[in-house]
Amino acid sequence: MRKILVVAFVFCFWNGVVSAQEYDAPAIILTDANASIAVLGLTVEQTVGKEVFDADGVVLGTVMRVIGDDQDTPTGLVLSTGRGTTIVELADTELINNRIVLSTPAD
What we know:
This protein has a single domain (26-102), classed as PRC-barrel domain (SH3 type barrels, Roll). The chain is 24% helix and 41% strand. It has 2 helices and 9 strands, in the order H-E-E-E-H-E-E-E-E-E-E. The protein has helices at 2-23, 44-47; strands at 28-29, 36-37, 42-43, 51-53, 59-70, 73-81, 84-89, 93-96, 99-102. The strands form 2 sheets. Strands 1, 4, 5, 6, 7, 8 and 9 form a 7-stranded mixed beta sheet that branches. The chain has a two-stranded antiparallel sheet with strand order 2-3. A hairpin with a 2-residue loop joins strand 6 and strand 7 (84-89). It is globular, with a radius of gyration of 19 Å. Residues 2-22 have low confidence and may be disordered.
């Protein structure tokens, strides 16, 4: 019985560690100014400093950094807002009339 409990504990512990590595991996700040952000059709350099708007045209914040899973895969924008910083997923944005617009409701 003791062996079964030990094996079950090790399995659950190991599975939790693997899941944590897979889903909670830290984001990386993209440092290549010429890296392409396909969703927006812009480079990192063109994106940093741009304002981000909601669907009603209200400014949500200014892009401080572009982050991603690695240097070649941008996944989000770090925004400076009036109340601090927030992260917006690139999948929820689009470029409309040279403006970055969040296509989902802001919280």
